Amino acid sequence: MRSLYILAPLLLLLSDLPSTIAKQPPKNAILLSQVQTLTLRGNGAKTTHRRLPAVPQLKCLSSSKICDLHDIDVLRCTNQGSGYDDEDTQWSCTANLPPTLKLGSTDVICEGYSSSEDPYVLKGSCGVEYRLALTKEGERRYPDIASGRSNNWFGEDHDTRRKSNISGYLFAIIFVAVFAWIVYSACMAQDRNRRLGGARRGGGGGGGWGGGGGGDGPGGWQPWNDPPPPYPGTKP
To answer: Is Cell cycle there in the keyword field (predicted)?
Structure first.
């Protein structure tokens, strides 16, 4: 009986062991809320991956003219606390940049361990998408870029906008040319019909009442060709 009392708690403990083990995350799964700092590297360094392909740890989203001015070697992000929930971690990122550039917005993106909704993320899978902008000094040093407004943080390139504008102008010119050709063709057709109509109305007008040459057709007077009025001293 004593052994039964000893085995009962042991069996209860063993029955809870699988659920306890199941609750333990894998060793390479972490919560971002428990991470205080992230260090990301450039020069083609890739993230670790499990479900998704590896991506660069650092990716510039500004225009190519801005991104080509400087490649960030190391970017460090510090945990600034959570937002709307515990795992909505807010980050503050810094990097060494030349005086012509400043760091814009940054987005930390990590791979969920088992799914995109998993609060646990794969260790080493985080990358940062960032944007660069010109400082006042940068605008003076690169006036061509500054005048093209290609230093915006949304990666909009002035060359792309210019090509789009040229395409719009060409379309407008073609549209106006086609419309003018249609109007011109309609006017020419109307004028041609007017000339042809006048020729038909003037045809077949010869003849008369003269003595030699006929033109009135056989059979004497026709309904549309009344005889001349009677002359004085003659009987009708």
So the answer is: no
